[in-house]
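Quick illustration, no need to memorize.
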Amino acid sequence: MNKTDVMDPLDILKQYTPARIGVGRTGTRPLTKDFLSFRIDHAAAVDTVYGEVSKDLLKRLNLFSIDTCFETKERYLTRPDQGRILSDEGKAIIMERCIQRPQVQIVVSDGLSANAIEENMMDVYPALLDSMSAYGLKVGTPFFVRGGRVGCMDAIGEVLKPEAFVLLIGERPGLVCAHSLSAYMCYKPRKGTKESNRMVISNIHRRGTPPIEAAAHIGTVISQMLKQKTSGVNLVL
């Protein structure tokens, strides 16, 4: 084998990651093309944090909307705890419109990426409902939470008392992907639920965990939760 036939180790690494490794430089500065690519991806990450999920999408998914106590995007970013607390109006709405004590409660939230909902939900959500049906599981009344954090599962659990819970929420955007979705799952989430009791399927998007494949796996996990009556580190899959 000639020396020219041996691949550079850095080139091999670059085949397996979209991360910015081995980018070119001129002196102490990155190449213009690499610098502009960074600026574009950074702008996309900022836009999705401050973006809004369209009312048209929520209408197509037949999801009504409630708010947490986040008030503004700036407050949402600096006070994560406010995204875990439902507004009084939000509590009243779900008490009025939702099935109480459902077997499975599904909630969608923008979280830190509105684009994650816009890009993935039309694939994930119908497939998730199909997966629940295939396992013979009964879903309550799904809805959308604006300004939600993962811990809003517990606040909603206190109100609706579901047996199992699925939260589809936008992930913190990065410089590789600004539309990644996560699915958090928990058995009987209530106030004081430990993080070790939650489970998550992350990086749900077309270049990561395929949305339809993720939806099918969520159904498997939830069915096992209900059989074993537990979740998190205690669940055996």
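The chain has one domain: 50-234.
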